[in-house]
Write a structure and sequence with these properties.
This protein is α+β, with helices and mostly antiparallel strands. Helices cover about 25% and strands about 25% of the residues. The N and C termini lie far apart (about 60 Å). The model is unreliable at about 20-25, about 115-120, about 135-145 and about 195-210 (pLDDT under 50).
């Protein structure tokens, strides 16, 4: 039993590593953008009239489109004030955009629970269902500790677009509490020490910058979304990560086919800013964001002016009329 609890604590921490650092929502207001009503009477269950139902994404996009001005209002922080249904509605109204390249800082969040919804439930229910059985129950009880450990470990993702893979930035290898294969050869990258000091010159000031380790590789490609099959997403796939160069069985195997079978998918809100979904063995667990300030600043003016969005993945047949304005 002790061994199982330790396994859950580390496995849960690893989920946080893959998807982002935990941030506590300090902005109680979500973005001022259109959403479909919480209740869609055309889909209402006559036997359960109080239940909430997820609205069809094609209908949401047609009746409540997001303009580029709307997308500019969304930030990694104000997303945390939304319900899961609202986060899903945003995801269903955006496309994959270009596959990211370079360093992206990340934040994960468990969206506010839709307590009356038989579909989304709350974060503890999703964790229990994803991991299953006794281990799922233990993970549900350990979520607070998991979040704290994840915050100390994970700093973001580095995308190698041309090579078709990415790696995760891990700050302190000691917190992994396991042996790292060939630890002295783990590649590193320099990033700002504090997430709120996102200025490029900081990386050159020793006491304000930080060398982090690159671990947990994943393959990168376009593929079908597990939530919205109308168009593709950028897929971050850890299943066959043992085929990537410089793979380390410890700890990288935890994410792969013999471990948690992690699969993420992301879509672009605007240049440099992506919304993602993390899955364990095809079961949805949590949301996350990825942000590159340099790309965001460089692309903001053109995006607002209506420049064409580069689509490296299939964007589907439904036109995003409002987003083209």
């Amino acid at each position: 039993m002790v061994a199982q609890i330790k396994t859950i604590a580390f496995a849960g921490a690893f989920l946080i590593i893959l998807a982002g650092t935990v941030a506590l929502a300090d902005d109680p207001k979500g973005p001022d953008i259109p959403f479909a009503p919480e209740r869609d009477t055309s889909l209402q269950d006559p036997d359960n009239p109080e239940a909430l139902f997820r609205v069809d994404m094609a209908k949401v996009e047609s009746n409540w489109p997001l303009s580029r001005a709307d997308l500019m209002k969304i930030t990694p922080k104000n997303l945390e004030a939304l319900s899961q249904d609202q986060v899903d509605q945003i995801y269903g109204r955006i496309t994959a955009g270009p596959i990211p390249d370079g360093i992206y800082r990340g934040t994960l969040f468990f969206a506010k629970a839709d307590t009356n919804s038989p579909i989304t439930g709350d974060r503890e229910t999703r964790i229990r269902d994803a991991m299953g059985g006794l281990l799922g129950i233990l993970a549900e009880k350990k979520i607070g500790a998991v979040e704290r450990v994840g915050k100390l470990l994970w700093k973001g993702k580095v995308f190698f677009r041309d090579e078709g893979y990415l790696r995760n930035m891990i700050e302190d290898l000691r917190l992994l509490n396991r042996k790292i294969d060939r630890e002295d050869t783990v590649p590193k990258v320099t990033i700002p020490r504090f997430t709120w000091l996102n200025y490029s010159w900081i990386r050159y000031v020793p006491f304000l910058s930080n060398d982090v380790n690159l671990l947990f590789p994943a393959k990168l490609y376009c593929g079908q979304s597990l939530m919205d099959s109308r168009r593709e997403s950028v897929i971050v796939d850890y299943y066959f990560n043992d085929e990537i160069e410089e793979y380390r069985d410890s700890p990288d195997s935890l994410a792969g086919r013999n471990g948690l079978k992690i699969r993420d998918e992301i879509r672009m809100i605007r240049p440099g800013f992506y919304l993602g979904r993390a899955y364990i063995n095809k079961i949805f667990l949590l949301n996350f964001t990825l942000y590159n300030e340099e790309v965001a600043e460089k692309g903001a003016a053109g995006f607002q002016a209506g420049e064409a969005i580069t689509e490296e993945c299939w964007a589907g047949e439904q036109q995003r009329a409002a987003a083209l304005k």
